[in-house]
């Protein structure tokens, strides 16, 4: 989905503070040589792209969706700052380890000659390693472990992306097929950030009843998904011929019919799956 230029501008202007929050949080965990301006530039571009791609019909708040896109862009920017080759990073780590070991043994900072002897090399090589350490912008392997964890590539592979997209496709169909009252509760709590009290007032029931409807809806969603994706996980009701079980079976069939009529999920999750994943809880078997 592509939004109009006016709506994109409105979303960007209203959510500019997200960039500052994300950049400030990240700067506390990286070397001081990392440029705030470069991170802010990457975050700004991500915000604009998020505003262009945002689909309000998913019900996911834009701020939540944009925050994920901005954070991902900042981590990509950090990866691009890692100038050092693998050999250079290894020399930096070796020099640091040797320096720490000799300092502890000698009770003082070691000389260049002592470092060269301990490393089995010459003074020139020690000087080169020291220069690489001084001009290091951000070495992913040698940086603080917290930064290393942050810049890991945890994105799904193509097979995982396809499975995720397919499951979200079925989840969307299952939510739309829920009985109206259950659907209102699920969409209100998980997609619209509405409170239990607000939903209780709208439906004219108690807050505890809303909690019961939520539990009932999630159970039905789980069985609706499993009936079509993993049938062995679906438990048969106590009365297979009873009215309640027949209604469940009708719901399962309706979910399958709606999913079949909808478009086939893409192999690579796009904007809609990403936004849905940010809002809906995992419906476990």
Automatic annotation (TrEMBL):
Pfam families for the chain: Sigma70_r2, Sigma70_r3, Sigma70_r4
Residues covered by the RNA polymerase sigma-70 region domain: 14-83, 92-160, 175-222
PANTHER family (alphabetical): SIGMA FACTOR F FLAGELLAR
GO biological process terms on file: DNA-templated transcription initiation
GO molecular function, one term: sigma factor activity
Name of protein: Sigma-70 family RNA polymerase sigma factor
UniProt keywords, alphabetically: DNA-binding, Sigma factor, Transcription, Transcription regulation
């Amino acid at each position: 989905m592509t939004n109009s230029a006016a709506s994109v501008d409105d979303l960007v202007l209203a959510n500019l503070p997200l960039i500052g929050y994300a950049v400030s949080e990240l700067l506390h965990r990286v070397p001081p040589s990392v440029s705030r301006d470069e991170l802010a530039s990457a975050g700004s571009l991500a915000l604009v792209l998020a505003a262009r791609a945002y689909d309000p019909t998913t019900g996911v708040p834009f701020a939540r969706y944009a925050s994920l896109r901005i954070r991902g862009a900042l981590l990509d920017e950090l990866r691009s700052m890692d100038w050092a080759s693998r050999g250079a990073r290894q020399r930096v780590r070796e020099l640091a380890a040797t320096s720490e070991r000799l300092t502890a043994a000698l009770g003082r900072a070691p000389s260049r000659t002592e470092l060269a002897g301990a490393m089995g090399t010459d003074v020139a090589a020690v000087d080169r390693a020291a220069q690489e350490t001084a001009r290091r912008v951000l070495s992913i392997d040698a940086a603080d472990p917290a930064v290393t964890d942050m810049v890991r590539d945890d994105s799904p592979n193509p097979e995982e992306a396809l499975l995720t997209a397919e499951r979200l496709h079925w989840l969307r169909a299952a939510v739309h097929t829920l009985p109206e009252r259950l659907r209102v509760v699920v969409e209100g709590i998980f997609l619209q950030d509405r409170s239990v009290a607000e939903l209780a007032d709208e439906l004219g029931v108690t807050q505890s009843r809303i909690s019961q409807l939520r539990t009932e809806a999630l159970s039905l969603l789980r069985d609706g998904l499993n009936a079509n994706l993993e049938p062995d996980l679906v438990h048969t009701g106590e009365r297979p011929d009873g009215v309640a079980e027949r209604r469940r079976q009708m719901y399962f069939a309706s979910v399958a019919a709606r999913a079949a009529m909808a478009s086939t999920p893409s192999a690579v999750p796009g904007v809609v799956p990403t936004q849905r994943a940010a809002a809906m809880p995992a419906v476990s078997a």
